Amino acid sequence: xxxxxxxxxxxxxxxxxxxFGATVDGGPSVAFSERRPLSIVHVAGKPDDKAFSDGVKTxxxxxxxxxxxDIATSGDLSLVWLAPERWLAVCPNRGSGVLEAAFRDACGDxxxxxxxxxxxxxxxxxxxxxRTVLMKGAPLDFHKKVFTPGRAAQSAISQCGxxxxxxxxxxxxVYVFRAxxxxxxxxxxxxxxxxxxxxxxxxx
Length: 204
What we know:
about 200 residues, 2 domains
């Protein structure tokens, strides 16, 4: 019998590791991988509510980032600012509902907590031309002095709403709704074709 609770990547049908695109001196300058499996929880509440802010810190180990585009981290968990009263908590998979339960237990009725792990596809791209690939689609400033590690921004790429984070220099994670995962993958890899690109094994 098929386990209907098993998580299957939205990219499963098209994901293939290897080297693709143009052949260039020095090899591919963009690398892609899907980040999975992940635990992703949408967190909403009032940052000036002590019960909520203390609960979030108890659940994830870091203070709420309150500046637009900021990311707070604690170990392998990131807490990404989305809007004045909304954040996204992301970490390697902790098991079904575990991260959500941690926030619910810690925040009680002071926050609105929703597990969205199944509803997101996260694509990581890195390398010397990763920023150039993203510039082709998102009207954001990707200059190295502006979009620095520890920053996030929301924008549209190929008419799809995205959250883009920068976990390290010349490394970006693109979050998109699962239904648009395959389209986003195809758009990004097509945009990277002129530089040559590699597809690596999925990893958290």
